[in-house]
Specification:
The structure is a single chain. The chain is of the alpha+beta class. The protein is built from 14 helices and 20 strands. The strands form four sheets. Strands 3, 14, 15, 16, 17, 18, 19 and 20 form an eight-stranded antiparallel β-sheet that branches. Strand 4 and strand 5 form a beta hairpin. Helix 1 crosses helix 3. It is globular, with a radius of gyration of 26 Å.
Length: 454
Amino acid sequence: MVVEIDGRRLNYWLNARKVTLPVLATRTQTDSGTFASIVNGGRGEVDDVTAKNVAGALSVRIGDLMSDTTELPRVIYSSAADIARTRRPITRDGIHFYNYYTLPVPPSRIGPVLLDILCPQDRVPALNNGHLEPAITVNLGPGDINGRWGQSLSPETWAPIRANRREDAWVVGDSYVEPSYCPHSYGLASDTPALLLSYTAPSRLSSHLEEQNRWTDDQAALFRSHYGKERVASAAILEAQMLRRGVDVRWLSMTSGIEERQLEGYLNGSGALLTTSQLEQVARSLNVDHRILLQPMPGRDPVGKTSLSYERSIETARAFRSYQVASMAASPLHSDLSGIFISVTGSSREAPALDLLDDCDSHYLVTAGALVFSWKEDGVVQQRAIAKGDAIWMGPFVPHGFGGRGALLKLNNGDGGTYQDQMEISVAWNLQHTLERSRGDFQNWGYDHGSGGK
């Protein structure tokens, strides 16, 4: 069996493990020229035994070294007919409950889905079990929908998600954001059919939760005990940072100027919250980024969701570049999950301005009209006619724009550039150099190739 090794990934792990090419050759009983040619050539093939030995020498998995030559596309387009062919019926509670349809997305990325709502109005829709991914959901109409978010029915757990039935409704309906593991379900509110767009975005906790699933049960139980106490999560984070640094309350009090009693009450959940200024003082004492200690802004109802009626969306309407846009529901607790309604009123005879550019993946769904979609690829402007029901996935940092007359929805979830990435960018030293150096980095950390690492 032949394994293709990516030279950049091999070089990364050589640098991370402080292993030189000669040392790697000795440990794997392989000619050092083999690895030099891989690093210098960008990639190369070895047999599976050698690949296993290299992975063992560097304490990594073989997959950490393998080539991934898949280049993300700039644009993926699906017509309404293409999307219709992705239809799959879903049975729940003994009835044909939904039809699901998939919008375009590259492999291994998460994308939006459309749902035909089929549960009849005289039936309370059976709940699902919730899922880790938070979601933003929009009623595309034409009918209203009954939303359910809990076993017992209340104004928070049983509410309409309405469609805007005006002829010129570019803000098509109500929207809401739901958190992780929030049970939810939808049924028709009348005899009028309804279509729902739901975008379940990756949870930024998922990589950490994957790590936890590699722990023993007692490790996981202690984690839950630490973070599950009756206190704000930032207090648990502060305590964890103190433990890492060998800091107790007395020392933190002396260095931050905050009374021991106040710190103890904050940490165990029995006292008042610390102010932002005090949290900044604590962060300076610990030499940590103070932002991880800040309290989150409010943005949820009692079941965890954030809703926005289409009337309130219309109130947010504003000019943006060559468009009119309006906000969808959003929550500061899900910073990567966002959406806007877009009205396009340009001339179909003029080439659209390439005045849109995002730092992360974007998803578009045409909700009305006939539009011209333009984007730049390899320095050349491309164009495509698009119509209601068509959808587009757009990669990061691709200039694009829309002309003609019609309307779209735009959704983002942070893939390609999350808010956590932005936090890391904000504290990077010599950012421009870091960004330039990291692109296809094949440099070692400064050893002589023949030194054997000594």
